[in-house]
Amino acid sequence: MKHWIVPVALLLIGLITGIISERVLLNKLKGFIARTKLPGNELFIQSLRGITFIWLVVAGVSGAVISLHVNGLISASVFAILQKILSSIFLYSVTIVAARLAAGFVTVLSQKVEGISASLLSNLARIVVFVFGILTILQTIGFSITPILATLGIGGLALALAFQDTLSNLFSGLYLIISRQVRTGDYVKLETGQEGYVIDITWRNTIIKEISNNVIIVPNTKLASAIFTNYHLPAKEITVPIQVGVSYHSDLERVEQVTLEVAQEVMQEVSQCVPDFKPFIRFQTFGEFSIHFTVFLRVNEFFDQNIAKHEFIKRLHKRYQQERIEIPFPSRDVYLKEKPEDS
User: Are 301 and 236 in contact (CB under 8 A)?
Assistant: First the structure.
């Protein structure tokens, strides 16, 4: 009976230290690393959550197994099997940490580069680490991975045919990211008329959020082959044309002067506008009721044009009233011809 005291003690020590490490030591380590201000410190701590408990429990179980084997309580074959199992558990936990770190660093780097989708690249990084980790585990416990790789190579064709649509969306998503035709944060308008901000590019879909707060899900293959307008390329700033009409009795020189004064005022006072841009107008045509011209403003991005138009129209209408500049509206003169009396 006394031979079981040491194994049980080792098991309890591993379990207790694992609990302490999760609840106390990791928090202490988190505070210490935070003071050092090292890059990725929070990510490192999050990657170890739940894993240090596994490591310490595995260490306690391994010590107990060795003690049982030394005391002759388990055979060499059972000892070898238990060692392989414990080694597999340890290597798999290391793989989890590596996958979390890889995905986390990809996410951090993606956030630093404007327009890069985090989810697709981080998921790919996680998958790659898991594949290498599982192959390492199989090699460690005695399986030859060469036949497995050969089988995967042969079966890869069958899988590619079976998951053709999924793989097409995956590679289309990678193409969109690499080509930088669509980036997270861009405002796009599809050929179907739907528009909004791209919030993510996943392994299957591109997610677009409309101004109304609805979400549009577009398969990556559809977006890669679609005709769409990206209002953030080549730059976010866009020129906004605003149509205006004035009466034929107006002094066009005065109209141009007043309109430009209002436009310049909007450019300087509205935060959504580009203050360095000089607005300009171009007379276009003689309309049926008015002389038409277009005022050109510039805003920081596509959605800002609504605020710019709103402010410009309000201020221009007020200024035209003060200057007695008429904005005509459609009208018709109707003449009634009297019916001749019967003779």
Answer: yes
Contact 47, 97 (CB under 8 A): yes
- Pairing of the two strands 291-299 and 238-246: antiparallel
Q: What is the DSSP string of 255-292?
A: HHHHHHHHHHHHHHH-TTB-TT---EEEEEEE-SSSEE
**Token pair 């380590």 in the structure block, residue:** 29
d(CA 326, CA 317): 10
Contact in structure between 247 and 328 (CB atoms under 8 Å):
yes
What whole-number distance in Å separates Cα of residue 312 and Cα of residue 310?
6
Alpha-carbon gap, residue 112 to 54, rounded angstroms: 33
| Residue 269 amino acid letter | E
Q: How far is CA 305 from the centre of its chain?
A: 24
Contact in structure between 220 and 179 (CB atoms under 8 Å): no
pLDDT number for residue 170? 82
Report which secondary-structure segment, H or E, holds 297.
Answer: strand 291-299
The one-character DSSP state at 235 is -
Residue 277 and residue 218 in contact, taking contact as beta carbons nearer than 8 Å: no
Best mean pLDDT range from 7-16, 27-36, 118-127, 313-322: 313-322
Local confidence band at 62 (pLDDT 50, 70, 90 cut-offs):
confident
Q: How crowded is residue 326: how many other Cβ atoms within 10 Å of its Cβ?
A: 15
How many CB atoms lie under 10 A from the CB of residue 10?
Answer: 20
Cα dihedral sign, 51-57-61-67 = positive
AA identity, residue 218: V
Rounded to the nearest 5°, which phi and psi values hold at 238? -130, 155
195 token code pair: 């528009």
HSE-up of residue 269 (Cα within 13 Å, Cβ side):
9
CA atoms of 291 and 307, how far apart (whole Å): 25
Backbone φ and ψ of 213, nearest 5°: 80, 10
- Helices 5-20 + 51-70 axis angle, to 10: 170
Phi-psi region of 115 (alpha: psi -120 to 50; beta: other; left: phi over 0): left
Of the pLDDT bands very low, low, confident and very high (cuts 50, 70, 90), residue 84 is: confident
